[in-house]
Design goal:
It is a single chain. The chain has two helices and 13 strands, in the order E-E-E-E-E-E-E-H-E-E-E-E-H-E-E. The strands form two sheets. Strands 1, 2, 5, 6, 7, 8, 9, 10, 11 and 13 form a ten-stranded mixed β-sheet that branches. A three-stranded antiparallel β-sheet has the order 3-4-12. Strand 10 and strand 11 form a beta hairpin. The protein has one domain. It is globular. By secondary structure, the protein is mainly β.
Amino acid sequence: MKLVSSIPLALSLALATACSSKASDGTSGAPAGTWVTAADSPGPAKPLPAAESFFSGAVPAAVKMKPTKSFAMDPGILMIQGVEGWTGGQLPGYEHMSMSKDTTAVARVATSAGVTGEMNCKELGVAAAMAPLRAKNLKESVPAVLRQVGKNKFVAREGVCTGDGPKGPVEIHFLNILRKDRGSMWHYAVLVGFPMTASQELKNEAMAWARSLEFNGGNGFTMP
């Protein structure tokens, strides 16, 4: 797949996934994502402390971030800051991909077929299986719960999956973002994964990418 080079980006390992669906009002410009009605919206979830979040907190001091940012979902909606030493960029349709030099850390914003009430490990399978991550047999390791995450402390569901990679087990941290747009709700997932045997340096870079996220869209989640 051809990368768009006009927006430089270096991400640690991350994937952001959105399930494509058409809004019931037939609006042709609706964003890629999972459309749900108010009745489908998930109920309150028990929040966990930010200190336990992979996506919240200070960026590890040893990690150098790029001065440039890219975006996903739509221009200006989900801002992503690159990590020095990583390559990648924006894909057509506001998808996104980046990877480490050895390709063991991968960043991806992808759309996939299907409609769900929320995003969990099962719904991430298609994107996680794509090269170069090639993770399969995803299983829930930590159930998703509401947390305040990212650089601007937006509310999202956060969980953890494990899976089988081409060279051994992988760990995938993910967010489920519920975006309000044009009177509808759209579910997205942001994934950050790496081999379980990854060095602490690589894990720190993955965490730095995750904590750089800024969500500027309407948010369907609120803390209870």
